[in-house]
Design brief:
Elements lengths: L11 E4 L12 H15 L5 H16 L2 H8 L2 H15 L5 H17 L7 H11 L3 E5 L3 H10 L8 E4 H4 L6 H11 L6 E5 L2 H10 L3 E5 L16 E3 L2 H8 L1
Helix pairs in contact: 1-2, 1-5, 2-4, 3-4, 4-5
């Protein structure tokens, strides 16, 4: 087995969680559509199409800001509360209690719809038998990320699990990768990081000297950034295995 483009032996594989192993977008559109339905039902006179537009606009506004993004991923319920509240403000119908209820209902629906990406469960199991060491490196709050790890039985496959909310820093901060490498006792140049977030998983890993793979699950035409070093692009963990074996 080789590690990356230069053919070095692979000492450790680092995997992201959401949209790399689990389908983080599963049910998102349906959940937001149901949220819009609930807002229209509770606020007579609102047009469904207008509510959908304002929810989408509020989501873009919230997540496009790096500081809000960092804060939001550590408390998704609060982030969604702020998003719904912002949409209601723009619609001229501010209602803090309705925003709270809607964000909680949305979160329940999203959690219920979580699932493995196609073939990812079997791929993780196979990778565990192929590589000397594996680490799960995920941004986000401790409770929801640990709940996913437990629900989907991922812990036995990894030698090290690092969650932003527990470690205190998230990708792409160099300390994140340095701690993972130290925990596994491996060198950066002998490792491979795989994840969907180009900035956090590819650029962040490369800055730490780790080879990187961009998980382009949605088949985007090009990465949302430019890497100074070569990287692989795959659409599934099964495709990754085909490159490694």
């Amino acid at each position: 087995m080789r590690a990356t483009r230069d053919g070095r032996p692979l000492a450790a594989l680092l995997l992201d969680l959401d949209d790399t192993i689990l389908d983080d977008a599963a049910g998102a559109d349906e959940a937001w559509a149901l949220a819009a339905d609930g807002l229209v039902a509770r606020q007579p006179g609102l047009a469904q199409a207008e509510v959908v537009v304002e929810l989408e606009r509020a989501r873009s506004w919230f997540w496009e800001d790096p500081e809000r993004h960092r804060r939001g991923r550590l408390d998704l319920v609060a982030a969604r509360y702020e998003i719904v509240g912002q949409a209601l403000e723009r619609l001229g119908r501010p209602d803090a209690e309705l925003a709270k209820e809607t964000s909680q209902a949305y979160t329940t629906l999203r959690d219920r719809n979580q699932r493995f990406l196609p073939g990812a469960k079997e791929a993780v199991e196979r990778l565990r038998g192929l590589v000397p060491a594996m680490a799960l490196v995920t941004n986000g709050a401790s409770q929801p990320q640990r709940a996913k790890v437990e629900r989907f039985g991922l812990a036995p496959h990894f030698d090290h699990i690092q969650v932003e909310g527990e470690f205190g820093l998230g990708k792409p901060e160099p300390e994140v990768y340095e701690h993972v490498l130290a925990s596994l006792g491996v060198r950066a140049e002998d490792c491979l990081m795989v994840g969907d977030n180009f900035g956090a998983d590819v650029l962040g890993a490369q800055a730490a000297g780790i080879h990187a793979v961009w998980m382009n699950v949605r088949g985007k035409a090009k990465p949302p950034g430019r890497a100074s070093k070569p990287h692989w692009t795959v659409q599934s963990l099964e495709e990754l295995i085909a490159r490694l074996v």
